[in-house]
């Protein structure tokens, strides 16, 4: 949907007089515009699962063979895992968010280069709704991809705890919205310096991934990595996802939601502040 159609959508619906209602109206308009673009090309979301599927089908089995048929005891017990896949899948879903949702700011960079972003700014939409709406849209494709991967994992040993999985998907979606907002904030700060966006994004993503124990249990790693992981908010998110996907409800879940909500608040604040500064 073009920027013009966003304006037409809003004008056709009527402008709410209440400021809160107007803000909600604008957020919905932007989120729907972004979501329609995604829904028009569902195969791109499916193809984006290529790399995660490789990790799930070819990397996860190596973990079992490397430790004599089971995940390292500390890692497995902490997650309540019944199999390597049970332990590995939740971390893989968080990795999808880091490498997928965390890159969405590049779409904003492309729009800025092509001029379509300026047309959106020229519309009557509030500035904050542009970022909030875009960020909320990230919830849907991230959760849909997570559902597909979860279904694929079932024949390979994943035990489905439906209640825990649903809550885990909610936690993942909240984190994805915040991460998407952070990515958009980085895109706004980078402006026409695309190299800056990718340098910062990659420099931050890989350390967060490795220090969260997504791919391998940190219990068998050096002491300094275990200490560093405690200062990594993604660690608490991964631990919370693993507990939920194992059907458990414990302190890890609470800390996981704290990490997800903190990412949401910080991300939306950074995104809204960024677009206001960029359009002064």
UniProtKB/TrEMBL annotation:
<dbReference type="InterPro" id="IPR013525">
    <property type="entry name" value="ABC2_TM"/>
</dbReference>
<feature type="transmembrane region" description="Helical">
    <location>
        <begin position="46"/>
        <end position="67"/>
    </location>
</feature>
<feature type="transmembrane region" description="Helical">
    <location>
        <begin position="253"/>
        <end position="272"/>
    </location>
</feature>
<keyword id="KW-0472">Membrane</keyword>
<dbReference type="GO" id="GO:0140359">
    <property type="term" value="F:ABC-type transporter activity"/>
</dbReference>
<dbReference type="GO" id="GO:0043190">
    <property type="term" value="C:ATP-binding cassette (ABC) transporter complex"/>
</dbReference>
<keyword id="KW-1133">Transmembrane helix</keyword>
<keyword id="KW-1003">Cell membrane</keyword>
<dbReference type="InterPro" id="IPR051784">
    <property type="entry name" value="Nod_factor_ABC_transporter"/>
</dbReference>
<feature type="transmembrane region" description="Helical">
    <location>
        <begin position="164"/>
        <end position="188"/>
    </location>
</feature>
<keyword id="KW-0046">Antibiotic resistance</keyword>
<feature type="transmembrane region" description="Helical">
    <location>
        <begin position="195"/>
        <end position="216"/>
    </location>
</feature>
<feature type="transmembrane region" description="Helical">
    <location>
        <begin position="139"/>
        <end position="158"/>
    </location>
</feature>
<comment type="similarity">
    <text>Belongs to the ABC-2 integral membrane protein family.</text>
</comment>
<feature type="transmembrane region" description="Helical">
    <location>
        <begin position="87"/>
        <end position="110"/>
    </location>
</feature>
<dbReference type="GO" id="GO:0046677">
    <property type="term" value="P:response to antibiotic"/>
</dbReference>
<protein>
    <recommendedName>
        <fullName>Transport permease protein</fullName>
    </recommendedName>
</protein>
<keyword id="KW-0813">Transport</keyword>
<dbReference type="Pfam" id="PF01061">
    <property type="entry name" value="ABC2_membrane"/>
</dbReference>
<dbReference type="InterPro" id="IPR000412">
    <property type="entry name" value="ABC_2_transport"/>
</dbReference>
<keyword id="KW-0812">Transmembrane</keyword>
<feature type="domain" description="ABC transmembrane type-2">
    <location>
        <begin position="43"/>
        <end position="278"/>
    </location>
</feature>
<dbReference type="InterPro" id="IPR047817">
    <property type="entry name" value="ABC2_TM_bact-type"/>
</dbReference>
């Amino acid at each position: 949907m073009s920027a013009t159609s966003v304006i037409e959508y809003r004008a056709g619906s009527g402008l709410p007089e209440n400021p809160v209602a107007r803000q909600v109206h604008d957020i919905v308009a932007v989120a729907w515009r972004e979501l329609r673009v995604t829904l028009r090309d569902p195969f791109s979301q499916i193809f984006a699962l290529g790399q995660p599927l490789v990790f799930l089908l070819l990397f996860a089995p190596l973990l079992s063979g490397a430790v004599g048929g089971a995940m390292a005891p500390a890692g497995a017990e902490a997650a309540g895992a019944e199999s390597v896949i049970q332990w590995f899948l939740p971390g893989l879903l968080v990795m999808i968010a880091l490498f997928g949702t965390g890159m969405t700011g590049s779409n904003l960079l492309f729009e800025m280069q092509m001029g379509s972003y300026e047309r959106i700014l020229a519309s009557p939409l509030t500035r904050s709704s542009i970022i909030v709406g875009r960020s909320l849209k990230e919830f849907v494709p991230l959760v849909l991809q997570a559902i597909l991967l979860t279904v694929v994992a079932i024949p390979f040993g994943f035990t489905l705890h439906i209640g825990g999985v649903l809550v885990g998907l909610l936690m993942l979606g909240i984190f994805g919205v915040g991460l998407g907002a952070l990515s958009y904030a980085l895109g706004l700060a980078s402006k026409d310096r695309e190299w800056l966006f990718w340098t910062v994004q990659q420099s931050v993503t890989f350390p967060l991934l490795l220090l969260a124990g997504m791919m391998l249990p940190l219990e068998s790693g050096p002491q300094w990595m275990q200490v560093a992981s405690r200062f990594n908010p993604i660690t608490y998110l991964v631990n919370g996802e693993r507990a939920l996907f194992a059907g458990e409800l414990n302190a890890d879940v609470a800390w996981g939601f704290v990490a997800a909500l903190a990412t949401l608040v910080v991300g939306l604040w950074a995104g809204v502040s960024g677009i206001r500064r960029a359009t002064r």
